[in-house]
Amino acid sequence: MGTPQHQMLAGHTVDGGGLVRTLTLREGLWFHNGTPVLAREVVASLRPWSTRDAMGDALTPATDELSARDGKTLVFRLKRPFPTLPAARAKPTSLIPAIMPERLASWPTEKSLAEAVGSRPFRFVTDERVSAVPIVSATFERCVRLTARP
Hints:
Layout: E1 9-15, E2 20-25, H1 39-52, H2 54-62, E3 63-68, E4 73-78, H3 85-90, H4 102-105, E5 122-124, E6 137-139
């Protein structure tokens, strides 16, 4: 696995001997329904993910608090260093930590979501969905594009 590249973050800091990780969201992040991505929604999205994913399950006991400081900043306060935190958030397997609006992230995990609203470069085209046919997606024009990094 390569080095994780932040797609939704403008930057991050690590303080307190690795116990406090402050993440700052990039400007211009939008959900497919036209609402801005806020830190509280990232926090809300990571909670159900951590109950279903092995990496999230390992992160939970190491986390003292996960909170949104403001609209663009979230803070992980850890009980012990968790050096694989960036990899946990960037993992390429099927249980990715998908970021969705808070109202959907708080949906009961045993029920299917009522709608598909995300923040990824492609949006699910609901009205073209046909059972047993590949999923239709379209480019999400408001997605912040990554620039090449040295």
